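Before relying on records like the one below, remember that each one covers exactly one chain. Contacts with other chains, cofactors or solvent are not represented anywhere in the record.
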Amino acid sequence: MTTLARPLPLAAFALASLFPLPLIGLGALEGGIWLWLAFLYMTVLTVLLDQLIPLTVGTADGVEFPAADALLVSVALGQLAALPVAVWAIAGDSGLAVAERVLLFLAVGFWFGQVAHPAAHELIHRPRRELFRLGATVYVSLLFGQHASAHRLVHHRHVASPQDPNTARAGESFYRFALRAWRGSFLDGLRAETDLRARGQGPGLHPYAAYLVGGAAALVLALLIAGLPGLLVWVLLALHAQSQILLSDYVQHYGLTRVMRPDGRLEPVGPQHSWNTAHWFTSALMLNAPRHSDHHANPSRPFPALRLPPEDQAPRLPWPLPLACAMALMPRLWRRAIRPHLARWRPTALPSQDTAR
């Protein structure tokens, strides 16, 4: 794979992540070729570009990205605008054919899960309160507000350990993981936020109250847009996006565990506890989310500056992250494909932990 010494410019992230949005908007209004272009962009094109142009881009040491937050805000606002428009176009009197509504559902759902989620994920790590709230609002609109709490307070603290519901165990199928992770992150995030307030470190309204009220408001808006069909489509789009968020969690920490030290404490989180990918286009599309080890080491680092660890220091998947997530939907294929890569980073794994269930 060819290495480009310099990092991707911010314009490349903006073009890759925002280009599908006007296609989705035109598709919602006009249907036809625009919907096909949006769908193919979010599925076939992203993987083809990574394969046809094998490229690893360099790191951004010493480079400042003052406009990075502006791109995150643009993506978040685009998602908040696109969701009600998509609900109207799919469930309402838009004039789209059934096949066009299905295409729009798939395309916009992929964009929510693969672009809007990474943007919201970055925003909830920003110290500015208004940026955090915008990121949380994206998750609330997707009926997944608890992620804004559980990701920061539970996942980052307990990743690669049994205490983290969002770390997949070796041999665990995505479907079993998804149920466990959704429930576990909701409850553990609630517990963490409540404990903060008990210690006087979290004044004001309990975030879970905002998540629940905001989610209810989103569903009322869906009813106003297109009645019961609108409510159903909003919920299904939210589940579509949530499934991709959980797929990313599943793949990016699958089977990796922190070692228990002699003093009974877990070793610190290191680059060896996250899977990374080096593919340039999906990294641009997903705002460098595939450079996951560095994010765990430096949660507040701007996404264009995230570094890709050397292959001998951190696990690296041979497939683009969206392709790996698609493979994870087929448990036997996923276990067979990931087994030799996992073995390098889990030499003491028990054979029973990596067998089909």
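The radius of gyration is 20 Å.
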